[in-house]
Amino acid sequence: MSEQEAAVEDRGDDRSPEELEETWLPVLEEQYRSMTALVMGRMEGWRKQWRPATPGELTEMLDMLLHFEQHLSGFTPLAHHLLDSGRPRLPGRLSEMLKDVHDTKEIVISMYQDTVGAYRRMAQVQAGTARQWADTQQQVLQDRRQAFDQQFRQWHQNYISG
User: Is pTM, for the whole model, over 0.70?
Assistant: First the structure.
């Protein structure tokens, strides 16, 4: 059981709802600031490098966001307890944080789909170019074979007649 769940489950806790809120709200705010800084730092890094994120980088970021969302969701029992106790500050802020994380996940998913789409288009172009090259080479070989066959028939005809 996580520490935040234990804070709600242990009804024998001497801390009042005010104390619980004062304990956990700064912790959540700091974790949220750290996660936001990490996500923004990575996106800024990709921008400065003038390159899109790779599918692997986006998958890693999505995984990180999913874990953080799960971590924040673990505070839901505490938020309900505080809301029932007339302390709406932490539940309201938790709701905002979860919405922000969810929206960020949607952006990362969209970036992933765009990146994968671009990779697919590039692969299709490369495959088309390779196919054109192979068709051209095949035509060159066929033309050379026909020229050789024609030359051989001529030579053979001259040999038989002469």
Answer: no
